[in-house]
Give the backbone structure.
Amino acid sequence: AQTVTQSQPEMSVQEAETVTLSCTYDTSESDYYLFWYKQPPSRQMILVIRQEAYKQQNATENRFSVNFQKAAKSFSLKISDSQLGDAAMYFCAYRRGETSGSRLTFGEGTQLTVNP
Amino acid sequence: DGGITQSPKYLFRKEGQNVTLSCEQNLNHDAMYWYRQDPGQGLRLIYYSQIVNDFQKGDIAEGYSVSREKKESFPLTVTSAQKNPTAFYLCASSPYTANLYGYTFGSGTRLTVV
């Protein structure tokens, strides 16, 4: 079974600075997708960024980027120029690629605080 | 606008009662999922359905039941056999053949045992 581990239950960052959230996963599959979701206090889950395992290039979405290390099974999220609105719980998630409609497996989450 | 609607937003259950959480989507997605969220434990999969009239147990299915009679609807019943039902419940959906796109989530239901 696939597992996803987020080793940082809580992180904090000063506004306008950069922070990196860690995620590791365990799988024997070669075809899969990785995701970062944000859950603000409203508790609505929002997709931040995704990465296809077969792509070597790291995904980027505006101030959000990932460092995908396939051999190390590591998928960290970097938030640049942090804003107060970035404060949220962040979840890393894994999804098999070969099976249609496969489930997402989530990590335990990292609570990010942004200090003004 | 297309999306997923969960209702109610807050639900209170007495000991020994069954309650049903509603999840409806108008995204034409084939696959639907129910997760439970507890503090410090992330999201754990309860049940999922990849097609109408078919569903599979997830990691914590005991004390829960589901049905999938229509593509748009995937209700979750929390039975009296669920010993610790107080939690936040999230419903999600995705296209069957597009794992790349992850899930679309509902806004959740907070269930409290009183």
About this structure: Chain A is about 0% helix and 55% strand. Chain A touches chain B through 28 residues (CB under 8 Å). The CA atoms of residues 8 and 110 of chain A lie 6 Å apart.
